[in-house]
Amino acid sequence: MGTSISESRQTAAYPLLKGQKALVTGANSGIGKATAIGLGKVGADVVVNYVSDRESAEAVVREIESFGVRAYAHEADVSQENQVAEMISRMVDEFGTIDVLVANAGLQRDAAATDMTLAQWQKVLDVNLTGQFLCAREAAKEFLRRGVVPEVSKSAGKIICMSSVHQIIPWAGHVNYAASKGGVLMMMQTLAQEFAPHKIRVNAVAPGAIRTPINRDAWDSPAAEADLLRLIPYRRVGDPEDIATAVAALASDLFDYVVGATLYVDGGMTLFPGFATGG
Ligand code: NAD
User: CB-based burial of residue 244 (10 Å sphere; 0-12 exposed, 13-18 middle, 19+ buried)?
Assistant: First the structure.
């Protein structure tokens, strides 16, 4: 009765984030893509950040729009200060504000420590740690400017850092990556402490092994997958949607009292699986 198709679609989904404006970085692949789509599905308008491959970002936008919410793609390198500032300022122009930041963009440049070049070290730190800081800083400025709008959310803003089980599990051959994620843990907790009095919630999601292009070698042959499953008590490699649902829940008011926490979404990978039969 007078309800447009897009409105009825939106009501059909569980509108956990109805009316909220979300930015997901690195949203044209893997976990970021599933998360951007997942947030759209629960009612958020979404900015789909990408650094390369515009077409895949536009495909994510179209999928999000099919839920009756708004979306657009924005090209920016999260490690570049001016590009991040520009991205948030355009979002405020187009959507009016930002309510949820998912600082997801990340990469690996693996090498044995003695072979690792300074460029490999620096690139991973620049994107995985500095990139998250720059996005969090710019989003927080807008959260502070706007404050709480009770009809939208109990908090003034939510920042979700995409960390990794490697924020606490050392990882030989990946010292740059493990150091970046260890840094994300302390950055997230410090920002959570600093911003909490302003009603801004900062938390992290720490995925275990999720089937995405970043770790294809670890799961794309039966032998590799069997090897990987030994590290996962739940005996299943995760899907990007496992992370997307965790992010949506954590960003919603259902989790309003969760501040400075890491939600491990890892099938038990952080439970010291080697001790299940030994120790
Ligand atoms: P992915 O390679 O599919 O996606 C990474 C995304 O980040 C891509 O869209 C890529 O273009 C983007 N990106 C890279 N550099 C960027 C930059 N400078 N600016 C903007 N975007 C940039 O990998 P994924 O597995 O989806 O990884 C997403 C996040 O999840 C990363 O932070 C990763 O560390 C984390 N993570 C993944 C796993 C896993 O098992 N897949 C486990 C733990 C943590």
Answer: buried
Q: Which of 14, 50, 177, 257 is catalytic?
A: 177
Whether 177 is a known active-site residue: answer yes
pTM value surpassing 0.85 = yes
Number of domains in the chain: 1
Instruction: Please give the pLDDT value at position 15.
Output: 87
270, part of any domain: no
Residue range(s) defining the domain that contains residue 100: 15-265
pLDDT digits (tens, 9 = 90+) for 33-75: 999 999 999 999 999 999 999 999 999 999 999 999 999 999 9
Task: Confirm whether 275 is domain-assigned.
Answer: no
H or E stretch including 92? helix 81-95
Quickly tell me which residue has 């599990």 as its tokens: 169
Q: What is the CATH number of the domain that holds 114?
A: 3.40.50.720
Beta-bridge partners for 159: 101, 202
Residues in CB range of 122: below 8 A, 6 or more apart = none
Q: Is the CB of 127 under 6 A from ligand 1?
A: yes
Q: Which two tokens stand for residue 90?
A: 């355009």
What is the phi/psi pair of residue 157, to 5°? 170, 155
Strand 200-207, strand 71-75: pairing: unpaired
CB 101 within 8 A of CB 84: no
Nearest ligand 1 atom to the CA of 78 is 19
Tokens of 212: 């995405």
Residue 2 lies in a domain: no
Q: List pLDDT tens digits, range 151-178.
A: 999 999 999 999 999 999 999 999 999 9
